[in-house]
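=== RUN LOG ===
request id: a7f3
mode: sequence -> structure
chains: 1
length: 594
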Amino acid sequence: MTVASEKLTLLRQEMINASVDFYYVPTRDDHNNEYVPAHWQRRAWLTNFTGSYGEALIGLEGAYFWTDPRYTLQAEQELNAHEFQLMKQLQGVSAPVSQWLGENAFNCTVAVDPRVISMSQRYQWSETLLRVHGELTAVPENWVDAIWKDRPPLTLDNVRILDVKYTGLETTEKLLFVRDAMKAAGAETLVISQLDEIAWLFNIRGNDIPFNPLVISYAIVTMSEAILFLHLHCIEQTSLPYFAAQNIALKPYDQFAKALQQLSGAVWVDPATTSWWVELQLGQAFLIKQASPIILMKALKNKTELKGMREAHRIDAIAVVTFLQWIENHWRDGIDEITAADQLEKFRRADPRCKDLSFSTICGFGDHGAIVHYHAMPETCHKITDKEILLLDSGGQYCEGTTDITRTIHLGTPTADQKKHYTLVLKGHLALRHTPFPEGACGEHINTIARQPLWEAGMDFGHGTGHGVGCYLCVHEGPQRISYGATGVPLQPGMIVSNEPGLYFTGQYGIRIENLCEIIEKIPAKKCLTGDIAFYGMADLTMVPYARKLIDVSLLSAQEIKWVDDYHQSIYDLLEKELAPDVREWLRDQTQAL
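=== RESULT ===
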């Protein structure tokens, strides 16, 4: 394998040949995927950093690497400190690469593959560089690809049609909504490059992206046509009648650029997700630059999707409860973080309805639990014992929906501090779950609710409180989220969000409790005494008990105790007939009234 220094030498030669001072290598791929196929993992190959997020900037002299607190420890271990300077950033905000360039790139040329930088990012960087007499330039060939001799091929699978019994709406119906939005925006054409938007609109799923059931594709929608650009060999003959019935034209993936170049008139592109490369092809068009109409349509689940999400969580709960009972009885057998995660995956996949995991399982024991996005490695993983806390964050993909659950447990006798910390996290989790909020409230407005018990104790956590989740799509989905950063997106009935406060003590342990919840109406507008406004709230989808052993009941109010008891009773009522006898007995014990 080529070492980082050799790779940088080869890359710098490309830069010298083109008279470029810096070359930007982000995690982002051609479709802005969160999970990047091996074929497009250029940043990982170049830097040897295997974490899922990080941005590299290569200069003729030095090389710089930005990542956030989730991966700082991993970056320190995997990067060659002689080659890369680690530049720390805050989680939940973009890497401040352009700010650094604005202070250090006077009179410099910065090059990038335009496929891996969004239109919005390009505008911001160009403006910053202009102030220091610099320039951002697009290069037609990705220079990492040019020097990556053993690059994995793009792995593609057959396209699957997702039945309307799961989607609730045919593509023809969704296209009516999209075209109404286009008409309102004055757009004649909509260009789509986000894979989950394409999957949702055309009711297709695939296996082209790790953990996300997506198809590598592009799409163009006009008032009369819907064109799907993809690798045609992935379409089975038996699927062709579906596309014909839905009035979807199929064209080769590599004809997308030519189709863009032929577009004129008003073309709608989402500058936050559409690449600079797409913009460069649209030279004859007038661009309408605003968020894609599909984002909110996809986020607001219909009745069929919500029913499916509840069923997916019931199926998933059986696997997770079975695992929790199993690990209590088998940890003495030499189980470690990797074998525990593997066993949980086996329990999920025991049900044929499980199509995949929704992300790589985070199984952190003891101090590893304090690493928010920990990934266990064979040479450093911990054996699981009854001496410390175990944090397990995992999820599954089902045709019915997508799951994401975190449970924190202790297999022995927890300390008073561990119980206190767990219970404070639980109090925040319960408060967010049960507090109504007015119509129009955004995630940033209710973020405080989950953090208040921790703040009162002088503690906080560094990640978001909640994210949106797709329906048999991506486990992280916008536009809604619950966090410090302003989103400006009101939470609405039909949205799915996670509720996941936590606490992390470096070198000791981590605690996180995560349920997925549906946003529902709690108080109709006609019952509001102070104005015609509805109040919304959350309903749990996740149906797995909390860790009784870690709950300090003396810290809970009578109302909080009732909330836990009612939740636990509903879990037992839902699952009791589905479980093996020994697992059912375990669940009965875990769901007894506090």
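=== NOTES ===
The chain has a mean pLDDT of 95.
The chain is about 35% helix and 20% strand.
=== END ===
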